[in-house]
Specification:
By secondary structure, the chain is an alpha+beta fold. It has one domain: Thiol Ester Dehydrase, Chain A (Roll). The chain has 3 helices and 7 strands, in the order βααββββββα. The protein is globular.
Length: about 150
């Protein structure tokens, strides 16, 4: 008998979305978006999240912090092509840890087809690169401000 893993409990999240039009220079020799550009699309959505919720890179630096990426994964499900308009969503998952954990979806706007999904994890460090193990005051402040917004 196989043991099934218990499903993870649902986690609270906040999300923001942006649109991106695929440019000719993002197309590879197969005439589809080169896989590395999806990381840029994730970044575009993460920036939209930061602007919407007040947690942009300038806010992080103002609090004497860095938030380097420590994990990135992407699953490619279908190709995007030149001139597609993509809807890219970044979803911040609520966590008790000192990290920013985002999930992403990339959909073609015209037919709502899911093209890719992925995740990133950012740790917090001091300006001299020391890992911060407890949630920094900035993150605690944001969580308080967002208390009524979590889905």
């Amino acid at each position: 008998m196989k043991m099934r893993k218990s499903p993870s409990p649902p986690r609270h999240y906040l999300e923001a979305a942006t649109t991106v039009r695929v440019r000719f220079q993002e197309i590879d020799s197969l005439r589809i978006v080169w896989h590395g550009h999806y990381v840029n699309y994730f970044e575009d959505a993460r920036r939209a999240f930061g602007q919407r919720y007040g947690l942009d890179y300038a806010d992080i630096r103002r609090h004497q912090l860095h938030a380097p990426l420590v994990h990135l994964s992407v699953d490619f499900l279908a190709p995007a092509v030149d001139n597609d308009v993509l809807e890219v969503t970044a979803r911040l998952l609520k966590s008790d840890a000192a990290k920013l954990e985002f999930g992403y979806t990339v959909m073609r706007a015209a037919d709502k087809q899911l093209l890719a999904h992925g995740e990133t994890v950012q740790a917090f460090t001091s300006l001299d690169g020391k890992l911060i193990l407890s949630p920094p005051p900035l993150l605690i402040e944001c969580y308080r401000r967002w208390e009524s917004l979590w889905k």
